Amino acid sequence: MTRKFEYAPAPESRSVVDIASSYGLFIGGEFVDPSGGKSFKTINPATEEQLADVAEADAADVDKAVRAARRAYERTWSRLSGAERGKYLFRIARLLQERAREFAVLETLDNGKPIKESRDVDIPTAAAHFFYHAGWADKLEYAGLGPSPRALGVVGQVIPWNFPLLMLAWKIAPALATGNTVVLKPAETTPLTALLFADVCQQADLPAGVVNIVTGAGATGQALVEHPDVDKIAFTGSTDVGKSIARTVAGTRKRLTLELGGKAANIIFDDAPVDQAVEGIVNGIFFNQGQVCCAGSRLLVQESVAEDVIHRLQRRLGTLRVGDPMDKNTDVGAINSAAQLARITALTAAGEAEGATRWSPPCELPEHGFWFPPTVFTGVAQTHRIAQEEIFGPVLSVLTFRTPDEAVAKANNTPYGLSAGIWSEKGSRILAMADRLRAGVVWANTFNRFDPTSPFGGYKESGYGREGGRHGLAAYLDTEGTH
Amino acid sequence: MSPSSATSRARELLGVGSLTNKALRTWLHGLPGVDQVGIEARAAALATRSIKTTSKEWAIDTAIGMIDLTTLEGADTPGKVRSLCAKAKLPDPTDLGTPQVAAVCVYGDMVHIARESLGDSGIHVAAVATAFPSGRASLAVKLADTKDAVRAGADEIDMVIDRGAFLAGDYRLVFDQIAAVKEACARTGDEPDAHLKVILETGELATYDNVRRASWLAMLAGADFIKTSTGKIQPAATMPVTLLMLEAVRDWRELTGELVGVKPAGGIRTSKDALRYLVMVSEVAGDDWLTPQRFRFGASSLLTDLLLQRQKLRTGVYSGADYVTID
Amino acid sequence: MSRLEVRKTYKLYIGGAFPRSESGRSYEVMSSGRAPKFLANAAQGSRKDIRDAVVAARSAVKGWSGATAMGRGQVLYRVGEILEGRREQFVAEVASSEGLTRPQAAKVVDAAIDRWVWYAGWPDKLAQVLGNLNPVAGPYFDISAPEPTGVVGILAPQESSLLGLVSVIAPAIVSGNTVVVVASEDRPLPAISLAEVLATSDVPGGVVNIVTGRTAEVAPWLAAHRDVNAIDLAGATAVPWGELEAAAADTVKRVVRPAGTGTDAVEPDWFATPDLSRTRAFLETKTVWHPKGQ
Questions:
Q1: pLDDT per residue as tens digits for the range B43-78
Q2: A302: helix, coil or strand?
């Protein structure tokens, strides 16, 4: 008798969210039409269904938003006490919690990520960021950043599409808590939760102009970065764009923090708690379809256990459920865009061409939308492109090592330095490895954990500045003198 | 399998000439460690699976068929056992299509009552033995306890390991006792041997590393099933502990080709919990374990909730306690 | 008849040694003030000297950043002691380099020594002041601590040849960074004398490397060098610092801009009480997570 546990479809209800057919720009506390009258469409990447028409902000709109932010900074926000600012942030945190399901559904529709991730990770963590930073607003002098930290003024923020609302929270919460006003540009493929957040700002009675949302693509971001009256730029996205922003800002007095790409090594020693390590590998590279800057995209496994670990990993990947992101049992959802899918496809083709062995579990991909199966490359060498370039997709490259020194050397042998993982039951080895890895976040015997209290950010070409925790506040404050 | 054959097989598996405590220790402590936070997170993630409509129907019936309907009270009487057996055979008189449970689990002195009540229903009689629940008795007493239940017609013996010996590092003693009880489960002639479930009492082993080692030790000594708990100690069965034991039987199969069963017992009261366990069975050990031959729930009140949910699926309205017989 | 003084040949300081510029070039260094007079010929470093200095600095990172914080503090304090011993030499050199009277120069030198000693006390406090335990919402031990960013390029202040120099080198190396310093173009002599102090102290070779020469010529090479992690543009007052910052962007270097507003770059008052901002600028925050279980 062979039985099989088939899970019936368990779709999350879409009725909890109302998507308007078109959205304007959120400037000065209200939705306004873009001056150029242009718009772009945002689609559901799982179905290619069109979700809404979204205004495209040009330089004039950005200017309007910056002026609104400046006005709000000078007339309202900078005159409020920290305690009052904090209360607004507490309100926002609560509103996000109250409307969590609505945000989760919208995020999944616009982004393609599994509903269980938007429901259990993105939205609760976003609310937690506001809650955490709310408490800082009237305690900044205790942050260890000098006796009288001061807000910078107007902050321009550009965020990516992989965690749309969460990245918004990472940006807006600390900026407002420290007394700045904000012009934020969400990614062009995922603007909807940012626009719903505008609604939250209205419900919270946040003073007009404190938060402004300008939607658009690269040109909109560029206009924001170049705007002379912006005091600080915070960017999360690709290393290429980050460098270009740094060049644009060079020679001005604008402050800049960058959270860029990564190519994290996830290092498995022969004494690892192997079943948890396998979970950590899976979570490291298949969480959010691998579209995570800190993804554990390079598996470095000690040669003596490589065969066993790969066997266990492949067995585990056989249980991953790929498909409809709105199904509560889906583990791996859709790739965010056709462009991203093309990039993943091209890099994996290069992996095969360069001689690595490609493997995917059997899985049926939906006909419409942008899909890529969980993929593992074995026999990868350090020189292969799939070991060097950020793929930003559900693709794991497996390399082996023999000694701790070799693991460190391979892990650090990249221009990136965002994150790393270590799996071992030996405490002293973990501490020594953690010391030697050149990465801003080191997860030992765990992976892809995030918390508002925990600073996140990279070394080297993964960027500079930290988000979260006491350290994250420094990105939005004038703290000390100049030397 | 006689104790001596269990020992010789173990020597072969471990690659040692003599099955000493040291050899067992080296082997058991060479198993991969278990990270508490990681395994608990994995169990919690599996618990978020959403089982709806047709799969829920299937899973509820599958779960009912895996229940070891249990009464282990000092106050057990022949009447109580008989009525439990009646419910085992006919869980829901309003729906004769309801599956029967897998077994009725009782103390040794009640085996003959259960045997007689269950007749040729196909439902097994399981007996707890070996000075259950503490296991604090001599081996002679434990074997006598076992043989008594086997003689009375038990199809399955649920023994307890000597947790004291395990925690003291006397793995050989634990091994020997399991092997000896296994032998005591044997019947002569054509009659099938009683199946041996080995209760680890994971709540007393305290750490996941210990649970993994105890699971492997029990399988090495010949367990047909490994079982979490007596139900008399808290915590009893938990998702992470059962997950760990499912990993153990999965890995044991890869090593030896044998399929050992898993039985979480104690504390599983709701259909929602039962379905979560089945998800775990399917995704961790594999669907080969989704049968009463390889997975059981040791429970008393779980059946009631499964029946309520079953009625809800059948009728479309929520049911109530008055619509399910108490035993 | 008075005795003829024995003059010093001023060379570069790279990897603990004092080479001439590989280019073989040198340039005249004159005193400041109303009647400039010849002080010395300084080595005119080239891009290849910068390259060699970066190699030396990179190879010193492991040892210097791997030393105990207390050890770094002791080594740096020792430098303070030696500076004090050479006080008279520095007073004379600063006076002629910067066109100061002896009492003015003495004040500068004393401030520089005191500044160095201030920083010497920092290495074993930085992690305590700048690190913390993060109370994450889960069963994890989560700690953030500062680490040196690696190799820091420094354009030393053009005017303040010793106090300014000390004020940019010390904050970078206290935490374990190594540095490649382009000395003040017109006032390079105190920098080379400082190098002599470093060479005779316990600071390992390669931790501080000093190149004298034309800032405009070598600074772009330093700013663009891919093996440099950060750059301090304090001394980019007469060169287009925006271009250097843009070059640094190609490898996402950490940049400390020159003081001033807008595109203007000015030298700050180096006598002002220092704070940790320059030290912070060359630190990375590393956050380590580990589960807590049994």
A1: 999 999 999 999 999 999 999 999 999 999 999 999
A2: strand
Please name every residue paired with A236 in a beta bridge, in sequence order, or none if there are none. A259
pLDDT at res. B1: 61
In a domain, A2, yes or no: no
Integer Cα distance of C165 and C109 in angstroms: 11
When pLDDT is averaged across residues A251-257 and rounded to a whole number, the result is 98
Cα Dmax for chain A = 76
CB contact under 8 A, B287 and A319: no
Q: For chain C, which ranges sit under pLDDT 70? A: 1
Q: What is the pLDDT of residues B111-163, one digit of tens each?
A: 999 999 999 999 999 999 999 999 999 999 999 999 999 999 999 999 999 99
Q: Which domain holds residue A61?
A: 22-260+461-478
- Could you tell me if A288 and A201 lie in one domain? no
DSSP string, C30-76: E--SSS--EEEEEE---HHHHHHHHHHHHHHHHHHHHS-HHHHHHHH
Contact yes or no for A418/A441 (Cβ under 8 A): yes
The verdict on A136 and A276 lying in the same domain is no
Provide the pLDDT for residue A483: 40
User: Is residue A466, in this structure, part of any structural domain at all?
Assistant: yes
* DSSP letter for each residue of B90-155: -S-TT-TTSPPPSEEEEEGGGHHHHHHHHTTSSPEEEEE-SSTTT--S-HHHHHHHHHHHHHTT-S
How far is the C-alpha of A223 from the C-alpha of A426, rounded, in Å? 51
The answer for residues whose C-beta is within 8 angstroms of residue B177's C-beta and 6 or more apart is B130, B139, B142, B161, B162, B165
A241 and A171 in a common domain: yes
What's the pLDDT at A481? 58
**Domain count along chain A:** 2
* Element containing residue C291 per DSSP (H, E): strand C283-291
A274 and chain B in contact, CB less than 8 A:
yes
Question: What pLDDT is attached to residue A223?
Answer: 98
CATH number at residue A137: 3.40.605.10
Instruction: Quote the number of domains for chain B.
Output: 1
Q: Are residues A73 and A160 in the same domain?
A: yes
**Residue A8 maps to a domain:** no
Reading the block at residue A328, the tokens are 């509560």
> What is the predicted pLDDT for the residue at A482?
42
Find the catalytic residue in A107, A188, A259, A390. Answer: A259
Q: Decide: A266 and A282 in contact? Cβ < 8 Å.
A: no
Residue A14 domain flag: no
Q: H/E element holding C40?
A: strand C38-43
Name the one residue in this structure whose structure tokens are 């749309």. Answer: A164
Q: Could C144 and A439 be called an inter-chain contact, meaning their C-beta atoms sit closer than 8 Å?
A: no
Q: Are A472 and A376 in the same domain?
A: no
* Whether pLDDT at A2 is above 70: no
B212: domain CATH number is 3.20.20.70
Q: Which residues of chain C have a CB within 8 Å of the CB of B33? A: none
What's phi and psi for A155, nearest 5 deg?
Answer: -115, 130
Residues A231 and A328 occupy one common structural domain:
no
CATH code of the domain containing A341: 3.40.309.10
Are A238 and A347 part of one and the same domain? Answer: no
What is the average pLDDT value for chain B, to the nearest integer? 96
Region B5-34 average pLDDT = 96
Q: How far is CA B56 from the centre of its chain?
A: 23
Catalytic residues of B: 158, 227, 263
**C294 vs B contacts (CB less than 8 Å):** 36, 206-208
pLDDT at B2: 73
Give the range of the structural domain holding residue B96, as residue numbers without chain letter.
3-323
Overall pTM surpassing 0.95 (yes/no) = yes
pLDDT tens digits along A348-380: 999 999 999 999 999 999 999 999 999 999 999
CA distance B163 to chain C (A): 18
Contact C140 B207 (CB under 8 A): no
pLDDT digits (tens, 9 = 90+) for B98-108: 999 999 999 99
Full set of structural domains in chain C with CATH: 26-291 (3.40.605.10)
